[in-house]
Amino acid sequence: MARIGLPASALNLLLVLLNRVVITDTCSIAVHQERLMKVKPTRRPVTIPCNFNATACSGHFDIYWFRYLERYHEDLCTPKCNQETFKFKASLLRSDFAELEINALHLNDSGIYICGVAFTDSNAATAKQTGQGTTLVVTEPQSPEFRLLIVLTVLLFLYVIALLSICLCLYKAKNKEKKHCDGEIPGDDHNKSRKTRMLFQAVVQEMYHKRQARKARRPDSTTGETIYQNT
Questions:
Q1: How would you classify residue 104: left for phi > 0, otherwise alpha for psi between -120 and 50, otherwise beta?
Q2: Helix, strand, or coil here: 60?
Q3: Looking at the predicted structure, is the pLDDT value of residue 219 above 50?
Q4: How many helices and strands, by DSSP H and E, does the chain display?
Q5: If you ran DSSP here, which 8-state letter would residue 26 be given?
Q6: Contact, 108 vs 87, CB < 8 A?
Q7: For the chain, how big is the Rg over CA atoms in Å?
């Protein structure tokens, strides 16, 4: 059986193509996004950042943006954005940083925004990657009625505290006045003790005087008895 031989030039070309395929297949992309963003409805543009790192990649690449809402998903920029509403705008600020600009942010814009990067000249599966997605939460602003309710609640709380303080002061004043009317003035216990001590002193002095009087009468009675006996 005869062997089929290839020219040396053909073999060299085949090796070059194989090397290019191997090099191209090593292209790898890693996409990083913020997990959560909380904002309020505003007419100013809101941007969602997207960072990515490309390893062993060359050539042209595109940036894609998608969003997943509560019931459906939308292709926002693939890679060009829908220019009918001018609501979304994709920008490449650096070779490894992109962002999505959202205009006239509304409550309905809450969702998961996903950034994707694809090197179109590469056939490697890792040359097309998406991030984990940024969950955008558009919070509802506080209405004037809600703010007024908070202010009224605080004022009512302060009014109740002031009313309780006034009632407590009036109660103390009334209780003090009642004690004055009943004769229970400060130092009354001291006066009672003093009066009791003076009373005891008077009783003791009275008993002492009576005792001295009895002693003074005893010699007279003895003298009288002696005179009577002599008589």
A1: left
A2: coil
A3: yes
A4: 3, 10
A5: T
A6: no
A7: 53
Question: What is the rounded (10 degree) CA torsion for 86, 90, 91, 97?
Answer: 160
β-partners of residue 94 are: 97
This prediction has a pTM of 0.54
Strand pairing report for 36-39 and 134-138: parallel
Amino acid symbol at 54: A
Pairing outcome for strands 28-32 and 36-39: unpaired
CA distances from 225 to 53, 113, 211 (A): 142, 136, 22
At residue 32, the pLDDT reads 96
- pLDDT tens profile 131-179: 999 999 998 876 677 677 788 888 888 888 888 888 888 888 877 777 6
For residue 92 the two structure tokens come to 């490449």
Return the exposure string of 12-27: e unless at least 16 CB atoms fall within 10 Å of the residue's CB, then b: eeeeeeeeeeeebeeb
Q: Which of 127, 125, 108, 109 is nearest to 117 (CA)?
A: 127
Phi, psi angles (nearest 5°) of residue 141: -70, 155
Burial class (CB in 10 A: 0-12, 13-18, 19+), 94: exposed
pLDDT band, residue 101 (cuts 50/70/90): very high
**Distance (Å, whole) CA 13 – CA 24:** 17
- The three-state DSSP-derived secondary structure of 91-108 is EEEECCEEEEEECCECHH
Phi, psi of 24 (to 5 degrees): -65, -40
